[in-house]
Amino acid sequence: MIGYVTLGVNDIEKSAQFYDELFALCGARRLADIGTFILWGTSMDSAGLAITKPFDGNQASVGNGVMVAIQANSKQEVDAIYRKAIELGAANEGEPGARSDNFYAGYFRDLEGNKLNAYYTDWPSD
Fold first, then answer.
1. Is residue 111 a contact partner of residue 15, using CB atoms and an 8 Å limit?
2. Which of 82, 84, 114, 115 could crosslink 106 through cysteines, CB 3.0-4.6 Å?
3. How confident is the model at residue 101 (pLDDT cuts 50, 70, 90)?
């Protein structure tokens, strides 16, 4: 359903380095890079995350209530992604832990203040 999510950034080089290192932990890589727009994912057939400088030339700003969720394959991977994000300079928005019986997540803000989480769930698929 979702092709990709785009976050506006002001420092594309610094943000790109942050996401290169962060997404390497979950098997994602750069799928497209045209200088002012970079897309990460595991394939062009699945959802991804992109960063871009705003087209209108104004400063990028954080959307209140907007969050991007990174699906992990295990609770240990959630922990690793969260730790790497913090190591790379992200701000803590909620340490990894159970949020319900079937949902485990850690929350952080990237270098530009965008809110993300890494999560693992064992919810039934149907």
1. yes
2. 82
3. confident
48, burial (CB in 10 Å: exposed 0-12, middle 13-18, buried 19+): buried
Q: How far apart are CA 12 and CA 77, in angstroms?
A: 26
Closest Cα to residue 88, out of 25, 8, 10, 5? 25
| pLDDT tens per residue, range 18-42 | 999 999 999 999 999 998 899 999 9
Q: How many residues does the chain have?
A: 126
Of the candidates 45, 106, 49, 36, the one whose C-alpha atom is nearest the C-alpha of residue 75 is: 106
Q: How confident is the model at residue 3 (pLDDT cuts 50, 70, 90)?
A: confident
Q: What HEC string does the chain produce?
A: CCCEEEEECCCHHHHHHHHHHHHHCCCCEEEEECCCEEEEECCCCCCEEEEECCCCCCCCCCCCCCEEEEECCCHHHHHHHHHHHHHCCCEEEEEEEEEECCEEEEEEECCCCCEEEEEEECCCCC
Structural tokens at position 46: 């699945």
